[in-house]
Amino acid sequence: MTSTQNNPAIALTIAGSEATGGAGAQADLKTFQQLGVFGIVALSCIVSFDPKQNWNHRFVPVDAQVIADQLEAIGAAYGPDQLDTVKIGMLGTPVTIDTVAQSLASRDWKNVVLDPVLICKGQEPGAALDTDQALKREILPKASFVTPNHFESLSLSGMSEISTVEHLKEATQRIYDASGAVVLAKGGVRLAGAEAVDVFYDGSTLEVLRAPKVGEVAVSGAGCSLAAAVTAELAKGATPLDAAHAAKDLVTRAIQSRVSSHAPFDAVWQGAS
Ligand code: PXL
């Protein structure tokens, strides 16, 4: 059945569920909706924090065939003329990465926004080595836009330290040179100072995006929402730089409007503005 009465921009996120609703696919969909974009999800994994174990991550990958099935259904429902923009969030295992890479290759995408989620807050970096390598090998070359956080910028740039804005600028240039993707690297609370600084680089324009820091503690879903907002704006036809600015604005407001719970971290709220 086709109806052309409504014609919103459409964006897909391939992401994990984070059950408490702060991060992952839930954050992506809320962000898409807030920016007037019709959101679609292919679920890659399910994360359920464990309140009995210090809110550690319990991670369950979605079966590879089920991921492929979701992407088959989505691709059949929405042709490339309707859906040309995809965000990739937490994939979590090399098998999932393989599956997603194969599905992505079955059509041309205008915008592939990669939030290169390696580990979540509180996880051990070493646990993600094989995932890290598979992501770099199989997904990063397909990305047109990448949004690394501090830890991911270290990994993708090969730098041993990023503690100043100058370091972060160098990281964006290195990541661009290695990937060809537009880079929006997040300083967040990891860089000292009164401002939350992100650096944008597209091969020619290097721009520092600044907003007053809202506290010194990371808020759940900020990174997911930033990449989702970039995705939504690109789906609507914005330039990468305009998308980055709009995303920074949305996330700043979403952090200011954050929601507290009995979990040890607050969650962003995109809907307040
Ligand atoms: O914020 C990174 C992230 C992304 N996706 C899922 C997550 C998390 C962190 O908890 O659970 C599903």
Automatic annotation (TrEMBL):
One of its GO terms (biological process) is thiamine diphosphate biosynthetic process. Its EC number is 2.7.1.35. Residues 20-260 form the Pyridoxamine kinase/Phosphomethylpyrimidine kinase domain. It catalyses: pyridoxal + ATP = pyridoxal 5'-phosphate + ADP + H(+). One of its GO terms (molecular function) is ATP binding. GO terms for cellular component: cytosol. Keywords: ATP-binding, Kinase, Magnesium, Metal-binding, Nucleotide-binding, Transferase. Coiled coil: none annotated. SUPFAM superfamilies: Ribokinase-like. Belongs to the ThiD family. Catalyzes the phosphorylation of hydroxymethylpyrimidine phosphate (HMP-P) to HMP-PP, and of HMP to HMP-P. PANTHER family: PHOSPHOMETHYLPYRIMIDINE KINASE, PYRIDOXINE KINASE. This is pyridoxal kinase. It comes from Psychromicrobium silvestre. The lineage of its organism: Bacteria, Bacillati, Actinomycetota, Actinomycetes, Micrococcales.
